[in-house]
Amino acid sequence: MRNLDEMTITQAVLANNSRIGDDRLCEIMTSLVQNLHAFARDIKLTETEWQWGIDFLGRMGEANTTGHPQFALLSHVLGISTLVLAQNNRKPAGCTETAAFNTVSEQPPLLLDLGADLSTNPLAPKGYVQGSVLDTAGSPVPHASLEINPGSDEAPGRVLLQADEQGRYHFCTTLPDHQCIREDSPVGQILGALNRPAWRPAQLEFTVRAAGYQRLTTRVFRQSDPYLEADPLFAVRSALVAQWQWHAAGTTPVGTLSSDPFYTLAFDFVLAKN
Amino acid sequence: MRNLDEMTITQAVLANNSRIGDDRLCEIMTSLVQNLHAFARDIKLTETEWQWGIDFLGRMGEANTTGHPQFALLSHVLGISTLVLAQNNRKPAGCTETAAFNTVSEQPPLLLDLGADLSTNPLAPKGYVQGSVLDTAGSPVPHASLEINPGSDEAPGRVLLQADEQGRYHFCTTLPDHQCIREDSPVGQILGALNRPAWRPAQLEFTVRAAGYQRLTTRVFRQSDPYLEADPLFAVRSALVAQWQWHAAGTTPVGTLSSDPFYTLAFDFVLAKN
Q1: Cβ neighbours of A44 in B, within 8 Å
Q2: Do the Cβ atoms of A220 and A204 come closer than 8 Å?
Q3: B64 to chain A: nearest residue by CA?
């Protein structure tokens, strides 16, 4: 195996795949090599360009953190995440659609009581969220767990609530706002170079689990958000866009008195059976 | 741009490319997205598999250092580097072949005098290297600079020598030996999972520069190395395999007396004109 050139290298790499014991891994590596080589060959990638790519991946690695996961974000902005989610989540009619990967963080989510206040920004309006976890027949799924990612840099991270025996849940959070992918991050720089918008529409992320049902990881977007139609992550689905209702100062859904205006959101999750 | 599925996502991502001002960047991004999507679609990549890939890239990023550049190494072991080098380095007959990327390190190489001793391992045999830098007519290229990477973890890093007015160079180094890609590194783990050999054949890496000539970055391999035919980096070229000649203890090429056996290597570099 010497003197490989642009005509012979792909077969030489693929020949190694006969050593792989796992059929699926062999299938993945074969397609990965074929498609990456096709990319390099189709556009006659230069040394300088490829070296830039390798250096860029190194900068991605340096910037990659749990809070700002660069590789996941790059997958999202290249549309690969939406493609992978779509081809693996064909659900029965009536189910809530999947719109995010279920990423397992190293820190377990903080378990809070129903009705918990997740808001952290005293200057931002509060939003009161309530709804039910249901099956496709409209019956409640009792005691489903809801992992909530308020999706804000200032938020305390993921929290876990447990719906009641009627499948009902409610909590309070800072009203989500659209957020910009950091311009100084590698993915932000790529979006800038591509002249693509970097604003993500306002959203809450949920992972809903219940015994006997498929896990659902999804996002709930905010109607009238100016960035809904140009989501850089290609994740928006019409059924996941919901109305945050404005309310003047007064009594909140949990019976407290608010001296500021506040918002409410009602959203039900419909799970598919296992 | 909502409700994208596996049939519509690729076109939706590509539609963004019309915003790109630079034609070449547009070409690169179009092919990258098409080929990555083809990969995910062809094998119906699952969420779990893609999440593993994203996490793996994060581990690559953590392990990526100048001395152990994981992303460059992954490019090599997937054959992409050889493909990119081959399609960009069609040289006139008689020229020394390219066999490596010219990676620019943050640290400038250490400038040493001709004849310098780069060896660092007192227990390993010494090797005396000499040769000339020539043009395709066989005429010397005076004062060419040779950047040398001894390719060993114990080596002091890159050094720079300047050939004399006859294009001649010589130096002394530890005899290169084959080296194993670290099993505990992400790329080493990939090679293990693929049941692929991780031993790189012994080599010295050179970058040769001279005004009026194309820069040459290449590797010189050692004849009879047991790993020449299974180089995990797909870089070996017959014309770059050279004989290290064994010598009994005695007078070295530089006139010193060696109480241990030593080796000599003669290798000329032939540069292509600009």
Answers
A1: 87-88
A2: yes
A3: A58
The residue to which tokens 């060993």 are assigned:
B152
Q: Would the pTM count as exceeding 0.90?
A: yes
CB A247 within 8 A of CB A261: yes
- How many angstroms from the chain centroid is the CA of residue B218? 7
Nearest to A85 by CA among A208, A219, A185, A247: A219
User: pLDDT tier at A150 (50, 70, 90 boundaries)?
Assistant: confident
DSSP 8-state code for residue B18: G
Helices (H), chain B: 9-15, 23-42, 47-63, 70-77, 80-88, 186-193
What region does B148 belong to: left with phi over 0, alpha with psi -120 to 50, or beta? beta
What is the Cα–Cα distance from B80 to B86, expressed in whole angstroms?
A: 10
**What separation in angstroms does the CA of B28 have from each of A39, B18, B48, B90, B162?**
8, 13, 28, 22, 38
Give the B window 13-42 contacts with A, CB below 8 Å: 13, 16-17, 19-21, 25, 27-29, 31-42
pLDDT band of residue B1 (cuts 50, 70, 90) is confident
pLDDT at B152: 55
Q: What is the pLDDT of residues A259-270, one digit of tens each?
A: 999 999 999 999
Q: What is the number of residues in chain B?
A: 274
| Helix, coil or strand: residue B204 | strand
Structural tokens at position A183: 């311009």
ipTM greater than 0.90: yes
